[in-house]
Amino acid sequence: MRIKRVLSAVFLLLFFVLISIGGITGVYAAQSRVFDDADLFTTKEKEEFESTIQSMQQEMNMDVVIATTQDTGGKSAKDYAENFYIERKFGKGSDYRGVLFLIDMDNREMYILPVGKMNRFLTDKRWNAILDDAYEAISGGEYAACARIYLDGVIKYYRAGIPGGQYNYDKETGKISVYRSIEWYEAALAILAAAAAAAAVCGGVTSQYSMKKERGRARVALLAYRANCEFSYSAQNDNLINKTITHVIVPRNNGGNGGSGGGMSSGGRSTTHTSSGRTMGGGGRKF
């Protein structure tokens, strides 16, 4: 009888251990952000990338993904990267902010896909610079080194902050969305202006309810009544004597067009488009 109890306790313990291991494995799989379908990385390299990505996610509050593939199913690197990001439901927050790096061995192309607010940090100039830095490594078959350059570039530009004058240019609609950050002194001035406006309104209401004008008018009326004052009105006509018309020619701005982002400087531009409610940018480089 005692042996049966001991065996039951052992089986029960093993059961709970297996459940715990399964739960941990499930959590790890859910948090995985390295998808090496082309088998380009070693196990140690994938563990390294996963660890780096977790630290980046905590610091940036954005998603970071690495994917490789041998077969895109006939899709371009751009379409494959975007579908991969959407179907796997990557991204943080309501704008699905994050970035995906794809090594496409089918089309021989590497592709960087910034999404949401990440487009503010990874402008066209910046993601092109990352691809420039990674080109030599990927051309030499050093795929892990290429992925490291991508991760280093993303965190570097995030820490550098959103560049001044940054704007998103939607290549499909031509719409320009300028990023505007508020400095502390601007916020202080706004608060002071709001306080002054509120004080003026309150002062006006207080003055009206004190009825100072009405009391003054009552005194004047009383004096007029006592003095038996009389008022007489005379008709007056307003005649238009002179009239001046000023014509102003407003010059038409022909300096920009849809393809150039409205003529604005391209240094801080992020060329984007919308797909499945996500603002997506980026581009690729053949190798």
From TrEMBL:
InterPro entries: TPM_dom (IPR007621). It comes from Clostridium boliviensis. Keywords: Membrane, Transmembrane, Transmembrane helix. The chain crosses the membrane at residues 184-205. Residues 34-156 form the TPM domain. The keyword Membrane applies. Signal peptide: none annotated. Residues 255-266 have a biased composition (Gly residues). Gene3D superfamilies: 3.10.310.50. This is TPM domain-containing protein. Residues 267-278 have a biased composition (Low complexity). Residues 253-287 are annotated as: Disordered. It comes from the Bacteria.
